[in-house]
Design goal:
This protein is mostly beta strands. The strands form two sheets. Strands 2, 4, 5, 6, 9, 10 and 11 form a seven-stranded mixed sheet that branches. A four-stranded antiparallel sheet has the order 1-3-8-7, with no helix packed on it. A hairpin with a 4-residue loop joins strand 7 and strand 8. The radius of gyration is 13 Å and the shape is globular. The protein starts with a strand and ends with a strand. The model has no long low-confidence stretch (mean pLDDT 95).
Length: 126
């Protein structure tokens, strides 16, 4: 089992920045690729970013590429999502998720992830 707890959400003006954190406990953190998803009201949960177990490769949704940065520190059992140049359309509940390393699953599908956090609200005002 892996327990994931997100923090760092809040209210920010358009153009501002936030950094989300995802603290993991339980089984070995480095055994998992880590992803961030988001869900806006009335919409499906969508992929935002993913980072491989060793931080060597990252993936981003086109909508956030160049504005968001995913990172991790295996010694701290923590992953982050640095969000800059925020837009009102980034408003959503953001979830971190863990996907077993080398599972052969794709990074952009919700069903590929084995564990999820409870989510943190990000609201961007115009």
């Amino acid at each position: 089992q892996v327990q994931l707890v997100e923090s760092g959400g809040g209210l920010v003006q358009a153009g501002g920045s936030l950094r989300l954190s995802c603290a993991a406990s339980g089984r070995t953190f480095r055994s998992y690729d880590m992803g961030w998803f988001r869900q806006a009201p009335g919409k499906e949960r969508e992929f935002v970013a993913d980072i491989t177990w060793n931080g060597g490769t990252t993936y981003y949704a086109d909508s956030v590429k160049g504005r968001f940065t995913i990172s991790r520190d295996n010694a701290k059992n923590t992953a982050w999502l640095q969000m800059s140049s925020l837009k009102p359309e980034d408003t959503a509940v953001y979830y971190c998720a863990a996907r077993v390393w080398n599972s052969g699953t794709n990074y952009y599908t919700r069903g590929s992830y084995n564990y999820w956090g409870q989510g943190t609200q990000v609201t961007v005002s115009s």
